[in-house]
Amino acid sequence: MGKVFGLLGHPVGHSMSPLIHNDAFRSLGIDASYHAFDVRPDQVKEAIEGIRALGIAGCNVTVPHKVAVIPHLDKIDEEAEQIGAVNTIVNEDGCLIGYNTDGRGYVESLLEETNALADKHVLMIGAGGAARGVVTALLREGIGKLTMTNRTLEKTEPLLQLAREFATDAEAIHKQEAEGRLAEFTIIINSTSIGMSPNVEEIPLSLERITSDQVVSDLIYNPLETKLLKEAAMRGAKTVNGVGMFVNQAALSFQHWTKQQPDRNRMKNIVLEKLG
Ligand code: ATR
């Protein structure tokens, strides 16, 4: 039997990860398979023990287990530690190492559309788990300034603290203020679920003051173009949807497991076809 990889999540039925990883194994001639495992929240510890006992070579971890798996692993990579969440496990001869490729995956998708981030002023909408991955990776890459906005403003505090550790200028402001100061931001990123299917008519922030030299990005990829991105495009701004992040995090996990580069365009086409 070839190597076995998997996804730990709950639920996992609609995940596209098995499709893209199994296709990548096949196309690179790697004898391995990838399976989705539905793990109940009270069974996370047993699932990790199962990886060891069965010799599963590696896993992805998704909602709601990205934080819960951490105490059961042997080593946590520095970036995953900063994010406080793991989305990738590598089984190195019985030693389970946790990584997080979500944030880096997103930054790489942004860099496909914009040049260096060093002088960019980023507005991050939302302060949950997804924001944490992306903001951490942006700070590691190096940005000019970070402004955060969130329904519950206090929840931005840990990320503002992290920005201070990176000596990056950072602040948190209310949504109304962000809307008024919209022209200041070079890149505006939505990390909340506002606009996600089936609530496609919702928008996290008014883009009335957007201009064509700004970038608007959404981590959501279902729908592909959220109302936020449609409005941005209508007003001439550049847009970045969440497909690149999904594909790149998968590709980076794949590289951790196999030390080989999967074809990211092939992965992207599978996702786009599946999303219709
Ligand atoms: P994820 O892992 O997807 O980031 P999360 O950690 O639950 O999920 O974070 C959800 C984010 O979306 C939070 O920033 C949340 O705002 P609060 O911190 O105020 O809860 C935001 N969010 C979700 N639904 C929202 C809504 N209807 N209006 C405004 N913000 C919302």
UniProtKB/TrEMBL annotation:
Shikimate binds at residues 15-17, 62, 87, 102, 221, 249. Transmembrane segments: none annotated. GO terms for cellular component: cytosol. SUPFAM superfamilies: Aminoacid dehydrogenase-like, N-terminal domain, NAD(P)-binding Rossmann-fold domains. Residues 7-89 form the Shikimate dehydrogenase substrate binding N-terminal domain. Pfam families: SDH_C, Shikimate_DH, Shikimate_dh_N. Gene3D superfamilies: Leucine Dehydrogenase, chain A, domain 1, NAD(P)-binding Rossmann-like Domain. Residues 242-271 form the SDH C-terminal domain. The active site is at residue 66. Pathway: Metabolic intermediate biosynthesis; chorismate biosynthesis; chorismate from D-erythrose 4-phosphate and phosphoenolpyruvate: step 4/7. Its EC number is 1.1.1.25. GO terms for biological process: amino acid biosynthetic process; aromatic amino acid family biosynthetic process; chorismate biosynthetic process; shikimate metabolic process. InterPro entries: Aminoacid_DH-like_N_sf, NAD(P)-bd_dom_sf, SDH_C, Shikimate_DH, Shikimate_DH-bd_N, Shikimate_DH_fam, Shikm_DH/Glu-tRNA_Rdtase. Keywords: Amino-acid biosynthesis, Aromatic amino acid biosynthesis, NADP, Oxidoreductase. It catalyses: shikimate + NADP(+) = 3-dehydroshikimate + NADPH + H(+). Residues 113-193 form the Quinate/shikimate 5-dehydrogenase/glutamyl-tRNA reductase domain. NADP(+) binds at residues 78, 126-130, 150-155, 219, 242. GO terms for molecular function: NADP binding; shikimate 3-dehydrogenase (NADP+) activity. Homodimer. Involved in the biosynthesis of the chorismate, which leads to the biosynthesis of aromatic amino acids. Catalyzes the reversible NADPH linked reduction of 3-dehydroshikimate (DHSA) to yield shikimate (SA). Belongs to the shikimate dehydrogenase family. This is Shikimate dehydrogenase (NADP(+)). It comes from Halalkalibacter oceani.
